[in-house]
User: Which sequence fits this backbone?
């Protein structure tokens, strides 16, 4: 696991990342390499669709994988980058109290070749406005 970006860099680029909140292939579906094909197709098409809908191209795709239940094999096979882990603190509920959650692996998939330089450059600030 590499420390590629810091949490504040990811927070700054909230608008330039797209979160893959759910990804499930049901256990009875048997098709070799289906997950990595879907992830690759999504990464190829998403920037174009996003730009048409929202007027800009995202910089990264991100996904969180429950480290207790899953290994992230499909993300590794599709060349996603294991960027780190969450702290397992969970989200805030309606009364603004945190509830415990399991540690998640954070996977990133760059959608632009120059993603690292854009992540730290001053040009990024202009892209957000």
Assistant:
């Amino acid at each position: 696991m590499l420390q590629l970006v810091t949490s504040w860099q990811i927070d700054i680029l909230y608008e330039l990342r797209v979160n893959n909140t759910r990804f499930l292939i049901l256990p009875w579906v048997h098709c070799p390499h289906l997950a990595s094909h879907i992830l690759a197709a999504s990464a190829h098409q998403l920037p174009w669709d996003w730009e048409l809908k929202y007027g800009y191209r995202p910089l990264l795709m991100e996904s969180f994988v429950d480290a207790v239940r899953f290994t992230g094999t499909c993300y590794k096979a599709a060349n996603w980058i294991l960027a780190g882990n969450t702290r397992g603190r969970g989200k805030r509920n309606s009364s603004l109290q945190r509830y415990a959650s399991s540690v998640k692996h954070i996977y990133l998939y760059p959608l632009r070749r120059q993603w690292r330089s854009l992540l730290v450059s001053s040009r990024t600030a202009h892209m957000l406005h």
Observations:
- The domain at 7-90+97-127 is CATH 3.40.630.30 (Aminopeptidase).
